Amino acid sequence: MTDTWNKRTLAVHGGTKRSQFGELSEAIYLTQGFAYDSPEQAEARFLQAGEDEFIYARYGNPTVAMFEERIAALEGTEDAFATASGMAAVTASLMSLLKAGDHVVSAKALFGSCLYVLEEILGRYGVEVTFVDGADLDQWRAAMRDDTRAVFFESVANPTLELVDIAGVAEIAHAHGALVIVDNVFSTPVFSRAVDLGADVVVYSATKHIDGQGRTLGGVILGTKDYVRKTAEPFLKHTGAAMSPFTAWVMLKGLETMDLRVRAQAEGALKLAQALEGHAALERVIYPGLAAHPQHALMQEQMGQGGTVLSFDVKGGKDAAFKMLNALEIIKISNNLGDAKSIVTHPATTTHQRLPDAQKAELGITPGLLRLSVGLEDAGDLIADVTGALAAL
Questions:
Q1: Among candidate residues 340, 350, 393, 392, the one with its CA nearest the CA of residue 371
Q2: Contact 174, 144 (CB under 8 A)
Q3: Over the stretch 28-78, which tens digit does the pLDDT of each residue have?
Q4: Cis peptide leading into 356, omega within 30 of 0?
Q5: Angstrom distances, CA of residue 29 to CA of 136, 221, 306
Q6: Nearest to residue 316, comparing CAs of 327, 328, 306, 324?
Q7: Strands ordered across the beta sheet of 369-373
Q8: pLDDT confidence tier of residue 3, bands split at 50, 70 and 90
Q9: Phi/psi of residue 166, each to 5°?
Q10: Domains of the chain from N-terminus onward
Q11: How far apart are CA 269 and CA 215, in angstroms?
């Protein structure tokens, strides 16, 4: 039955399992352990837990399993494993697969914490990482080696909104037997076509659009049942980055409204980007939904809409950007994104603060760059807020 359902229906009903009480809203099974009828049953379950059989919340929980099944149905993957945060999902997706001597090719335009995992943590354990310009397929081809085990990239880079051609990179990676791991946060499950385009593993920070209301941390790794249960799960259940049952329940509630929220946010982002395009106080406006964006056609193919986030570069650098931020009335200064509230951050001094100036410049993270995650406020009010703050310059 669920195979014929559209995404919005799956987001409300997918994976739901009810107890004998027939509850309409999903139950929160707030337990870390499970009782067995006999030692024989315990032994059998530890040998091989069946469907709807649980051992310990670090391994799995009924509420968490509902979230995993629902998000997997939405993304079009065989399975999923929910984690304590988005970065737990990114880290586990790589470290569960790799060993000393392996090689990874990664786009260089990444969120600061993702860069830390690839540059610092993997290197400590003998994994070699080659960074490339994610938009340049020739660089991906040149970087691939016989020992390349995986490629990693953000489908839309944070904060410069550069897109990576998923199908193009997947073709190159698969020709070398490498796994394609995609951090898909900016595309969101609503606009995602990552699996159709060749991604093997898709990672989300559920903290962002899936919760969407600033309440809880969470993440999820999606892929084949073989990868999720034989590669990711053993690493995760022994290292402990499990999602809590309460968080899973919050995420289930978030999925119910995600499609409506994300589409409204993307419409607001487009209106705001169009209003700011060509503004005298700005060096540039970056939004894939604008026809002038160099990767607009690729965005249409991979997402269909430009997403919920735009970036813009304020003339006058950091001082002007800070002055503009201090003049805002509606939009809040914070480093999260995908929230119902509009949020703006200055990447050079927050999310990418630790990067050397030369690396920031190479990535396009200038002193005047601001990243704005559009929420659910009236688009006209947001336009007035931003243009009014820019007028203060």
A1: 350
A2: no
A3: 999 999 999 999 999 999 998 888 899 999 999 999 999 999 999 999 999
A4: no
A5: 47, 22, 38
A6: 324
A7: 282-286, 309-314, 369-373, 343-345, 332-333
A8: confident
A9: -60, -45
A10: 2-254 (3.40.640.10), 259-391 (3.90.1150.10)
A11: 22
